[in-house]
């Protein structure tokens, strides 16, 4: 199964989609994505789990692996 | 940034940070933990997995600070983070009084006897609600004296159901091995001291699984429950309790 684009997931988080309850994918985020995710998460009331994976990367916030479980 | 979002979010209750053996906790991880120090009430499950070594970059201290803030945690999972006794002690202090805490996963770290003893002291506290504690694959050297201390610490505990201690140095070092029959005797007495009815009554009837380096006490408990006389005594305890209340 193809992984949905990060933007699709972001939109669902932003729209506070209550059906987004058991979903897990990994995205490599740049700083712009990271900021957008922060805004979306701040307004969301249905996300229950946040999974952040920083493996194999430098560990700074310019780019890192983010695994979202919602 | 994500960190600001997490400070305002009211629904995320499970946080999982994962690294590998090349990562310290990293700027990202530390900022996320700081966000949860500011927004701590909703977090019930906290996992930091495979950060080696956690102690670099101040990771150990910030984890303890975050644990202190998150008073509603039910599960803490710190698997393979190279946690030492020095790092564990402030974490133990941090969770003192966290009555919701039921599970603490600490396997594959570098905890030795000092940290282990401190954990058992925590278990002795009456408001400690930890039901599962995993100390598998650490540096705990369970001696004869240590086994007695462990058993003594669990005598009055009515919450802990599962304690895992295998794959520690006692498994690997024949010189420090405790005689398995002595260990068995000590824990037999802990689970059901048959020296008197009163002792049987006050024995630990909560612990169901105890995996030590040398003996599986789960088997002991199973054998106990096959013993009809013992079963009668345990029923007796229930009867006494119901009368008391």
Q: What's the total count of β strands of chain B?
A: 7
Let me know the average pLDDT of chain B: 79
Helix share of residues of chain A? 25-40%
Please give the domain count of chain A. 1
* Largest pleated sheet of chain B: 7 strands, parallel
* CATH architecture call of chain B: Alpha-Beta Horseshoe
Explain what the structure shows.
The complex is a heterodimer of chains A (70) and B (245). By secondary structure, chain A is of the alpha+beta class. Chain A has one domain. Chain A has two helices and three strands. Chain A has helices at 6-14, 31-43, and strands at 24-30, 49-53, 63-69. Chain A has a three-stranded antiparallel beta sheet. In chain A, helix 1 packs parallel to helix 2 (31-43). Chain B is of the alpha/beta class. The longest helix of chain B has 17 residues, at 228-244. The termini of chain B are far apart. The chains are: A alpha+beta (70), B alpha/beta (245). Chains A and B meet through helix 2, strand 2 and strand 3 of A and helix 1, strand 1 and helix 2 of B. Strand 2 (49-53) of chain A pairs parallel with strand 1 (14-18) of chain B.
């Amino acid at each position: 199964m193809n992984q949905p684009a990060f933007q699709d997931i972001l939109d669902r988080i932003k729209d506070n989609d209550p059906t987004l309850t058991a979903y897990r994918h990994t995205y490599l985020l740049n700083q712009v994505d990271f900021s957008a995710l922060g805004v979306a998460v701040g307004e969301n009331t249905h996300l229950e789990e946040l999974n952040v994976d920083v493996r194999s990367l430098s560990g700074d916030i310019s780019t890192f692996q983010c695994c979202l479980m919602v | 940034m994500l960190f600001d979002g997490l400070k305002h979010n009211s629904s995320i209750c499970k946080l999982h940070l994962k690294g590998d053996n090349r990562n310290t906790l990293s700027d990202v991880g530390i900022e996320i933990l700081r966000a949860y120090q500011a927004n701590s009430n909703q977090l019930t499950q906290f996992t930091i997995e495979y950060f080696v070594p956690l102690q670099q970059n101040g990771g150990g201290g910030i984890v303890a600070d975050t644990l202190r803030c998150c008073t509603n945690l039910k599960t803490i999972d710190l698997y393979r983070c190279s946690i030492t006794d020095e790092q564990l002690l402030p974490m133990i202090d941090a969770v003192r009084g966290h009555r919701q805490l039921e599970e603490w996963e600490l396997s594959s770290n570098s905890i030795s006897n000092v940290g282990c003893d401190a954990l058992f002291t925590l278990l002795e506290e009456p408001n400690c609600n930890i039901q599962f504690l995993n100390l598998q694959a650490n540096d705990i050297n369970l001696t004869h004296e240590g086994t007695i201390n462990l058993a003594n610490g669990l005598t009055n505990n009515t919450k802990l159901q599962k304690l895992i201690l295998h794959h520690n140095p006692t498994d690997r070092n024949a010189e420090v091995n405790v005689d398995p029959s002595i260990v068995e005797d000590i824990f037999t007495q802990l689970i059901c001291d048959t020296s008197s009815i009163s002792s049987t009554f006050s024995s630990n009837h909560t612990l169901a699984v105890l995996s030590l380096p040398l003996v599986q006490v789960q088997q002991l408990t199973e054998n106990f429950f096959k013993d009809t006389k013992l079963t009668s005594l345990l029923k007796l305890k229930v009867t006494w309790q119901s009368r008391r209340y």
